Amino acid sequence: MADGELRLPLEEVHRVVRAAVGRLGLTGERGDLCARLFVEATRDGVYSHGVERLPRFARTVAAGLVDVSATPERTAGSGAVERWDGRRGPGNLNAWAAMDRAVALARTHGVGAVALGNTNHWMRGGTYGRQAAEAGLLAMCWSNTIANTSAAGEEPVVGNNPLVVAVPRPAGPLVLDMALSQFSVGVLTGYAQRGERLPVPGGFTAEGDLTHDAAAVLDSGRPAAVGRWKGFALAVVLDAWAAMLSGGAATHELGTDPEGESGQTQFFLALDPGVVSGPDEQERVADAVVASLHAAGADLRYPGEGTERARRENLERGLPVRRATWAEVSTLAGASA
């Protein structure tokens, strides 16, 4: 265990987080789901967007950026494609509802697409890919962000627009959950807090030089796009796609303050492979892809395999939470750490 870190039983973490979101005004089933999504992100090893993120979420509620009483509303659509207004509600609840609707549309039409505007940070994006995959569907979803990613050291003009792609598999879904920056802001923050060197250059200094120093990247505000110009271009088209379909804000309309980020745009796609193949074929294909990776090298793993490992370890040892964060969350819950 790292210095300054606690290991806590999942049940205790969930109890305190549930109390905290309840005091923010999220009650009943909405409060239950909101708390579960925060806790499960930490359980699965996505610490920057789990319990660690809850104090920042509370600040956005206090600042009026998130309306805890708001629920998403359908504003347009035809057939398998719909537009929804998130009404500045809690981002994780809005995203869950949007993917749930995409899954329902896919059950009817074979494919379902929901474009969601005027929403907030969805926390762990991979949650919604898993949501569809665990229902037996293929899925893609992404969110735009404020401008925070640089191709060649320039002032950022695109977001790191996280992209999720999921494939159902009974033994464990394949879930790609990636920011379009080489490292997400949460991961950079973790490296900076630990004083560790990034394994590959993660961004640029204020002078425009590539660096392994996470703190320098955060100070400059210029994380590198994954694949440099390729990641930059992908961020641009995902942003335009989601904004066009949702009627929501594109990155250039979102402002620049990370603490004030609100009004984001997201897109959710679910596809039922059962319209063209049976469950046995689907399982055989997914298992064969995984087996081929494992056979090629002991260090190769499928997208999402690390999540399965982190989940097992954290359930056995307890969920890791920084002491400082736990004190904040406990205060939000009206309890002492």
Automatic annotation (TrEMBL):
Known EC number: 1.1.1.130
Pfam families cross-referenced by the UniProt entry: Ldh_2
Gene3D superfamilies: 1.10.1530.10, Hypothetical oxidoreductase yiak, domain 2
Keyword set, alphabetical order: Oxidoreductase
Superkingdom of this protein's organism: Bacteria
Keyword match Oxidoreductase: yes
Entry GO MF terms: 3-dehydro-L-gulonate 2-dehydrogenase activity
InterPro entries reported in the protein's UniProt record: Mal/L-sulf/L-lact_DH-like_ah, Mal/L-sulf/L-lact_DH-like_NADP, Mal/L-sulfo/L-lacto_DH-like_sf, Malate/L-lactate_DH-like
Matches recorded under SUPFAM superfamilies: L-sulfolactate dehydrogenase-like
PANTHER family: 2,3-DIKETO-L-GULONATE REDUCTASE, OXIDOREDUCTASE-RELATED
Protein's UniProt name: 2,3-diketo-L-gulonate reductase
